Amino acid sequence: MRTSITLDEDVYQLASLYSKGRGTTLGAAIGELVRKGVSAAPSDPISLRLKRAPNGLLIFAGTGRVITPEMVKDAQEDEIE
What is the pLDDT of residues 38-50, one digit of tens each? Predict the structure, then answer.
């Protein structure tokens, strides 16, 4: 079915990146994303681990401690010894 829609710029950018990554058309990508959104259960374990970053992308929420540059440096020094 052919139709015209108006997308917010951020939604267009996300859908465009998704379609390029999948090697599909923008229309096919939007259709796939809508179907995934409709079928996603709120109790889905993956959706519970995701959060939205300031740029709008979904990322995995932190579940452990933060690794600092000092911790990395210490680990590298331990590896050398």
Answer: 776 555 555 667 7
| pTM recorded for the entire structure | 0.49
Contact 16, 24 (CB under 8 A): no
Q: 3-class SS at 13? A: helix
Residue 43: per-residue pLDDT? 57
Q: Return the bridge partners of 51, or none.
A: 59
* Domain locations along the chain: 9-80
Q: What share of the chain is helix, strand, coil (3-state, %, to 5)?
A: 55, 5, 40
Interhelix angle for 26-39 vs 9-22, to 10°?
100
